[in-house]
Amino acid sequence: MNWIDNYVRPKINSLFSRREVPENLWAKCDECGTMLFHREVKDNLRVCTNCGHHMYIPPRERLEALFDGGAYTEVPVPQPIADPLQFRDQKRYPERLKAAQKATSEAEAMIVAEGEILRTPALVAVQDFGFMAGSMGMQVGNAMIAAAERAVERRKPLVVFTAAGGARMQEGILSLMQMPRTTVAVEMMAEAGVPYVVVLTHPTTGGVTASYAMLGDVHIAEPGALICFAGPRVIEQTIRETLPEGFQRAEYLRDHGMIDRVTPRAEQKAEIATILRMLTGAGPVVHGDLPKPDAALAVAAPAPQG
Predict the structure, then answer these.
(1) Residue 282 — very low, low, confident or very high, per pLDDT cuts 50/70/90?
(2) H or E element at residue 39
(3) Which of 2, 54, 150, 261 is most exposed by smallest CB count within 10 Å?
(4) Average pLDDT over residues 101-121
(5) CA separation for the pair 178, 263 (Å, rounded)
């Protein structure tokens, strides 16, 4: 061993050694495969800057982007029985719940929040596809009812962002019972004259589509979102026919009168605020950070001279 082996070679190796790159530094677009810097993706509301594909966005990120200043108050939701059927497949149901809670840092698949959207008071419920595929269990039913009751009590419109793979099989018939429960909640708002707007995100399927997802006063969808009861592959296998291009996607449903709008994520805040103000009979949207002027303190402009 000499000074080259003892000093020079280790020094060179340290200079040219490969640095470890954090796993969460880059995100890959599911649609076009482009590698995107994670900060760029987050700043763009989880929309691919190359192809415009709308990726999964955590519910709290969505709420922060939607409400003014990212400020909102979370509405408490009654928690159901943890494992009513003592269900077990490859794992026990409580184990699956704990795994989903650890992965998402959320207690369940739907969050209800209250705040202002461009100075427009509103309640917002967001379904989390990352939590057991957003499956509709008893907690989702409780969340929808809690949101509807609060909306009626406070006379505030309700906006629901849907994302689900269907009913939660671990809760069996109790999961299916959430379809009529949530339908009654929506009917309660309709009878009270409280606006109800639905934003359909990718994917919205199964019992959610068959209940509260398609009962809104206005239906908005994100670009490319799959919206259906049974998926296209199941339908093709059943009818043994090739389905049209883009079948059951947001744009196809809009063109065939099933939904009202297809709106990119970056434009949803302004559009939702405008729709809510139209439905409630309020004035136009107030833009900017300054509060809306108080009409009682307004000073009349002087009459023109001459």
Answers:
(1) confident
(2) helix 38-43
(3) 2
(4) 96
(5) 28
Token duo for residue 226:
């799959």
Is the confidence at residue 302, as pLDDT, over 50?
A: no
C-beta of residue 152 within 8 angstroms of C-beta of residue 184: no
Residue 261, classed as helix, strand or coil, is: strand
Tokens for 207? Answer: 């019992």
Task: Tell me the pLDDT tens digit for each residue of 169-220.
Answer: 999 999 999 999 999 999 999 999 999 999 999 999 999 999 999 999 999 9
HSE (side-chain half, CA atoms, 13 Å) at 137: 26
3-state secondary structure of 168: coil
Query: E strands within the chain?
Result: 26-28, 35-37, 73-74, 110-117, 120-127, 158-164, 196-204, 218-221, 261-262
CATH 3.90.226.10 positions along the chain are 56-281
Tens-digit pLDDT profile for residues 150-167: 999 999 999 999 999 999
Report the alpha-carbon distance of residue 69 to residue 305 in Å, rounded: 43
CA end-to-end span of the chain: 102
Query: Domain 56-281 is in which class?
Result: alpha beta
Yes or no: say if 261 and 220 are a contact pair by the CB < 8 Å rule: yes
